[in-house]
Each structure stands twice: as C-alpha cells, then as structure tokens.
Amino acid sequence: MTAHTSVMTDRRSGMIQSLGYPQTSTIVSRAVAAAAANNHHHSTSSRRGGRSSKRYSVSAFYSMAAEQDVEVEDELAQAQRTLRDMKSKISAQSKKNFMLERDVRFLDSRIALLIQNRMALDEQNEVASHLEEHDDDNDDHYPDDRKMQQYGNLFFLLQSEPRHIATLCRLVSLAEIDTLLQTVMFTLYGNQYESREEHLLLTMFQNVLAAQFETTAEFTSLLRANTPVSRMMTTYTRRGPGQSYLKSVLSDKINDLIEQKNLNLQINPLKIQEEIIERAEMENGGESGIVKSVSVEEAAADPHVKAFLEPRLRTLIDLANSFLTTIINSLDQVPYGIRWICKQIRSLTKRKYPDASEYAISSLIGGFFFLRFVNPAIVTPQAYMLVDGNPSNHARTTLTLIAKMLQNLANKPTYAKEVYMIPTNPFVENNKIRINKFLNDLCEVGDFYESLEMDQYMALSKKDIMISITPNEIYNTQALLQQHIDILAAKETDHLRILVTEVGPAPPQVPRKDNKPIELPLFSRWEMPIQDLTTTLMSENNITQNDILYMEAKAIFVQLIRSLPYLARKPLNLQRIAETAGTANDAQLVRKGIKVKEMLRELEEAGVTDRRDGYQLLVEEITQEMQHLGDLKLKVMEEMYSLESVYQTIQDHNNYLKSQLESYKAYLQNVRIQSGGGDKSNKKQVGIGVQVAEGKVKQKPGKIHMQGPVKYTHQQLEREGIIAETEVPEYRRSNIFLTISSPIPGTFIISLHYKGRDKPILEIDLKLDDLLEKQQDGVKLLDLEYIKLDVSKTLQLLTKTFMAKNKTGFFS
Predict the structure, then answer these.
(1) Looking at residue 325, what is its pLDDT?
(2) Coiled-coil regions in this chain (predicted)?
C-alpha cells in the first residue's frame, strides 16, 4: 500500500470515529465496496452511465453518514433521536400485543370449556399458566456467556440470510406457526421501522411466496387457504405501519357510519321480511297477516320487502363506493412493505401462469390486500382500535356487507356466493376498471436490493445490533432448526449446520414467570476484512481515491455546519468553516476542522477543486445536502406526529387485552373457590371465609367476605360507556344511581336506586360466569329493564373494583 493510500485509510478512520463509529475503516470500506460491487453487477449489461451510477451509490452512502445524529445536537438530530425512540416503543409494544392476543385467543377457547364445566383440573392449571406474571427477581434462566455468543452468531445468520427462515416457515405445522411468527415478525425483524430489518423480512416473504407458487397446483387456491404462509401475511399486516395506515384511512369513515345509530341496511330479503312481520305483530298486537317465505327469491318478490330493499340497496352501494374511493385515494399512504408484497404476487403470477389474464392477476393481489388486510379491519373495527365503542347490530351488518362487496370486487367472481348479494353486482361491474388500476398501481414500487446490500455491509462492522428475545423463543427456534436441519442445511460445511451443531440440543421451555426477555447482541462469525480497498475500487469499479476523498470532505462539512449552524450563511466559506471548527472549544470539532482543512488542500493539489472559485462545485453539493437535510427534518417531524397516534392506539389495544386477561383471572379464581369437594363430608374450605357444602357456597361464621356496595351515578356510567342504552328520561338521570356489591367471589348484586327512596327500583343477582358466557356468545348488551349495560365494559369494571382487591390469590 502506498504512503498516499495509508494517509487515505487513516483519514477514513478518523472520519468514522468522528461519526461515532468504531475507529476502523471497515464500515466505510465495506459500504463503498458493497455499493461499487453492486453497481458493477447491475451495470454489466449496459456500460453507459456506469460511472455516474457508481458515484451516485457511493455518494448516497456518504450522504447517509452526514445524516447521522451522533455528536450533533441540532433540531434534526433531536427529532431523529425522538423518532427512533418512538419507533422502538411501537415495535416493543406490538410484540407485547401479539403475545397477549395469542394468550387471549387460547383463553377464549379454554374459558368456554370452563363455563360449560368440561375442563379437568390439569387443564385448569394450563389456563392458569397463561395468566402468570413474570418474576423480575429470577435471573437463573439466562444462558451463560458462551451460549449467548453462540446464540448471537446463530440469530445473526438467521436474520441476515432470510432464506433459512423462509424454508422453516414452510416446514412447520399450522400449530407451530404462531410461536415461530412471534419470533420472526416481532423479534428477529422486530424493529419495524428500520430499513435493513424490514428489507430482510420482505426478502424472506419473497422466498416463501415463490415456494408457495411452485407447490400450489390450482391457481384458484393460491394464497386463499388457511396455511402458515397466509397466517404470515396476515401477521405482517398487523405490524405498526399497517395499523397506522388502517387508522388514518378507515377510522373516520367507520366512525361516521357507526354514529348513524338508526341506519338499517340489512338487504337479505328473508331478514327484512322477519323485521316487517315483527313490527306488524307489535303494532297489531297479534298476527301480521304476512306469510313467511321459504326462499330468498320468494321473499324478494314480496312487495312489502321490495319497498324496504330498494332504498337500502341504493344507500349501501353509495356507502361502498365512498369506502372504495377513500381506499383508492390512499394509494400513497399504503406501507411500502405491503405494496412490495403485492408486487411479488404479480411478478410470480406472471412467471408461473403466463396465460393468466390481468383480471385474474389483480384478483390475487386483491385477495391479499382486501381479504388479509383491509376487510378484517372493516368487519371488526374494535379489534383494530379504529373505533371507541362496539358497533351496534345495524352498523355491524352494514360494515360486513361493505366488506363483502369490496371482496367480491377484488375477487371478480362470475357469480355471488350468496343469492341476496346478487343485487349488489352493479357495484362490482361499475368499479372493475377502477379496482384493476388501483391493484396494479399498488405494485408500482421500487426494489431495495442496492440499499440492502449496503446495509448488510454496514451491519457486519456495527457492534450494536441487538434483539430482545425470550429464552423460550430461543429454545423453540433452536428445536425447530434441529428438527429440520437436514432440509435447511444439508451439507456439513453449511454455516447454519455448523452453528446448530455447536449450540447443541434445545433446552426445555422455561416456566412463564422465568421467560423474561434477554438483550442478545448479534454478530457474524464469518466476518472477513476487505483488503486493499483502494486498489479494488480503482481496478474494478473506476472509483478513484480522489472520489472517496471528495465525498468524505463533503460529509464532514455537512456535519460541521449542523454543529455550528451560524456558519451556514451563503455563500458558504469552506476555509472559514474549517478554521472555526479547528479553533473551537470542542475536541471533536477541532479534529474534524483540522482534518477537513487538510482534505481541501489535497483536493486542490489533485485538481479536483479550486480555492480561486471558492471551491464552487463542493459548495454547491454541500448546499444541496443541507437542503435535503432541511426537507428530511420536516419529514421526520411529520412521521413523528403520525406515529404518536399509532403508539396511542397500540397502547389502548394493550390495555383492552390486559383487561380481558384480568377478567379471565377473576373467573379462574372464582372457579377454583367454588370447585370444592372430594372429602367425605363434602365440605372444603377454599378461600378466606368461604366454604363449599353440598354444592353451595356458604359464608363461614365470623368470616365476612362481602365487598361493597360501591356507588356509581347514572351520568358517570353513561360517560364511561358502561351504560350503553337508557330509557331513563334525561331530567331524571341525575337522581338515578347504581350500587354494586359482591357477597361471595364471582357473584355480584347490582341495584338500581332513585334518590330519596329506601328500596331499590330494581335488583339483580349476577354471576361472573353469566357475563363471560355472554361475551363468548357475542352478546354485547346486558338488559336491566330500564338500562342496558355494555357486557365487556361491565366485566372490566367488576374486575377492577372487586377482583383486583381480592387477595386470596388467583392460583392458590
């Protein structure tokens, strides 16, 4: 290496350290080499403009370096750090929600069995294990240092070479996929807003989709069955960017519809006929005189039904058109990853089925975009936190019909599955061209391979790639890898096989309370230094030492101006900027100032720049870079604003899921208290002051369990949405209050009082089982004659007020 090359390498090292990276040239050299090699690969077919494309990619890297907020304290840097923190919070909260949702799904089915008294004691223990809290004091579950290093190597390889995970996702069973998806979507690629992780995850999707297209015999069944692949695609849409899109695009439309409480758009003729008969019987106090039809066609011919159906149909089609227009106009808001998946679906379909029509291709894209992403949010907006309360029955019916119409439009079927949907066919016919264009436009996004290659090289030299992963995620992945290693890595020399062999058999799963997240550093075992970078670049890629020197100087000047913004006055005086930094009180600025002054001298000696014209070319490029950073600051602030709303939504959903689990805890406690028995006397003490005798719960003498009564005003419960509907006249509501007491665990007495009266107007005895059963059956309201309570919110209130106070122990 020449003396000049050594100087260049030293200068690069100093620059990198000044940017906050380790004092090594590898981060720049690898990125430059990656960009150069990548451009070499992409320009072999056309040499024209090759040099400019190389300069562009390498320049892009140095622009990236100039954007770093390390050691810079301007507004952009502060906004970037705040944005990074917010993205990190969203990613972490998304993972927590995914885990909670999985628990709630499991418990929904198990609690149903408990309610029906069809669960053995060991199964009750299994339910209890899903409700245990983490024990923050136990560190025994941490792997030792050697294992941590082996796991760090293994998970770096899995993260950076997505083909392994892609193959594994195809090999696991449907029962195993949720656990693996948690690790893949929210741990391995958990930083949902970090481009490298997002791009690697999308590369994995490309592998999975390509295999799905290869192995699916029937075109019509592609991506529609409930398979690990379809589950993966649905889970991907539930990440932060997808949730943000749904909230910003659909929330207002759905809330506007829900507010129209009396809007009934049921279009099933049989159900309309039932409405007419019921109304007529109520008005006449007996028979309606209308004969019930036996088929949809027969009911549709009834003139009474026609009178209701036609205006409803017009309104419904107008609403569906309005939803469709909103979705089509949101094209630019659709997250990049979702559009890129649509692009892969189109590309794979064209390659595998060259004779497929444009309509057939767009129906596959629509199957993903609408069936897996948009429509579930329309049908159940409360599950996606798009609405504050639960939609009424009428609103739910309308939303379901709109989703069906959008799905029919996306699928472009030749017939309607349900006869009563046939009258909506004009909506499908009139919007075919619009939807086809939209679904094709979704696919028009660029690829990311160049930037990913650069990111990958940068990752090799970074020492701070971390993932937050639980022991059970590690051990489960380890076990799956071992189970399928002969397919994943058949050769003895395969890196994956070497690492899986070294790490050994997977330990058993740890108890839930010990399954605390571990911060696992990721790094590559096969990191190879790039020797003699300058020679490589010069000989193979036409990038000179002067090119690199010029771009480094530009990046450092941008950093200096960001640190000393008063130097940004135009025209830029580069000598003055270097002098000011070189004589500053900050050692970092001094080092940068001296370094960049020397760089200017070398660039002038090489004839690249000229002091006499004020280094005009360099000044122009620095000015453009500062303009870019100004635009970047606005984008960062806009993104921050939108993500704050997303984070609040995700937190709200987390609180809802937690309240569900609290209800289950309370119910399980109640079951355990009341499921006594087994001894000869058929008596067993199961809680403080409570015993079971002859199948009945009784208070022990001298031991009082009674909690409450707790008093709530009508206005308070109405304001919090617990009273969903009321028949109490508004002028009397201030005199109405409710009291709730709990004489024994899981049993509540709700009394409705009027001020000044000694006895309650109404008193009911309510069991926790009853409420949970209503929730299981989808019953939204509890009818108390004068008022109707929201079942879900009433459960939350009872759990919070009574169960949280009961310290007898959920699992004793």
Answers:
(1) 96
(2) 69-96
Cis? peptide before 511, omega within 30° of 0:
no
Q: Give the separation between CA 702 and CA 697, rounded to whole angstroms.
A: 15
Spell out the domain ranges in the chain.
3-76+538-630, 234-318+334-442, 706-803
Single-letter amino acid, residue 23: Q
In one-letter notation, the amino acid at residue 563 is S
User: Residue 81 is encoded by which pair of tokens?
Assistant: 């750090």
- The amino acid at residue 720 is E
Which residue, 768, 762, 766, is CA-closest to 795?
768
Residue ranges of the chain whose pLDDT lies below 70: 1-73, 105-106, 108-141, 192-193, 217-226, 285-289, 412-417, 449-464, 527-544, 631-632, 668-705, 776-777, 803-812
CATH 3.30.70.3040 fits 234-318+334-442, yes or no: no
Q: What is the pLDDT of residue 334?
A: 93
Nearest to 181 by CA among 192, 173, 169: 169
Beta bridge partners of 698: 691
Q: Which residues pair with 685 in a beta bridge?
A: 691
pTM above 0.90, yes or no: no
Cα separation of 775 and 758, whole Å? 34
Give the phi and the psi of residue 705 in degrees, each rounded to 5.
-90, -30
Nearest to 195, CA basis, from 73, 340, 71: 340
**H helices of 130-227, where?**
145-160, 163-171, 174-183, 195-215
Phi, psi dihedrals of residue 290, rounded to the nearest 5°: -100, 135
Rounded CA separation 340/351 (Å)? 17
**162 with 55: CB under 8 angstroms?**
no
Q: For the residues of 428-474, what is the DSSP string, one character each?
A: HHHHHHHHHHHHHHHT-----HHHHHHHHHHHHH-S--EEEE-HHHH
Beta-strand runs (E) in 586-715: 683-687, 690-693, 696-699, 707-713
- Per-residue tokens: 436: 């086809």
Contact by Cβ (8 Å): 630, 74:
no
52 exposure class (CB count in 10 Å sphere: 0-12, 13-18, 19+):
exposed
pLDDT of residue 440: 92
Nearest to 402 by CA among 307, 322, 297: 322
DSSP conformational letter for 506: P
d(CA 454, CA 195): 11
